[in-house]
Amino acid sequence: MKILETERLILRTLVQDDFDEVCKLLQDSEVMYAYEGPFSDQEVQEWLDKQFRRYRHDGFGLWGVVEKSSNELIGQCGITYQEFDGKQIAEVGYLFRKEFWHKGFATEAAIACREYAFHALGFNEVYSIIRDTNIASQKVAQRNGMEKVATFVKHYRGVDMPHFVYKKK
């Protein structure tokens, strides 16, 4: 189901048939460095199942990003609830296949999701939580009008990872 459309992209719900395409994203060690490495097939399925639960429970989640010109699934972008400072916040998150990096797709999708969060979902503020070493994603957050408001450490896969919190009101 199509959720959003931009000049070059369609954001739609992910479906089980996307498994192989999602593997191209989540099993790439360069793409997944901020997650301490690529996912196994089981972890990819768990990731998909988590999005399906979000769609049912929250009415949103990470959506598949399809490039219109090729009709290819090039990444994921969307809105998810994340825990920060003792509360649930709306996060604009994004993850793209490396061959589509540095082409403006992440920024285009993130801006569309920010606007959707404000205008369709009624949020007053949105966040992006980004690992401190992920400079490219930090730049996307800044181009999405966000400012860095906090730093905290996330413990994931046995590693303490500093993260920056960006926010847009």
UniProtKB/TrEMBL annotation:
GO molecular function: acyltransferase activity, transferring groups other than amino-acyl groups
SUPFAM superfamilies in alphabetical order: Acyl-CoA N-acyltransferases (Nat)
Keywords noted in UniProt: Transferase
Domain of life: Bacteria
Matching InterPro entries: Acyl_CoA_acyltransferase, GNAT_dom, N-acetyltransferase
Domain N-acetyltransferase: 9-169
Entry keyword Transferase: yes
Pfam families to which the protein is assigned, alphabetical: Acetyltransf_3
PANTHER family noted in UniProt: GNAT FAMILY, PUTATIVE (AFU_ORTHOLOGUE AFUA_3G00765)-RELATED-RELATED (PTHR43792), N-ACETYLTRANSFERASE DOMAIN-CONTAINING PROTEIN (PTHR43792:SF1)
Name of the molecule in the record: N-acetyltransferase
Organism: Parabacteroides acidifaciens
Lineage: Bacteria, Pseudomonadati, Bacteroidota, Bacteroidia, Bacteroidales
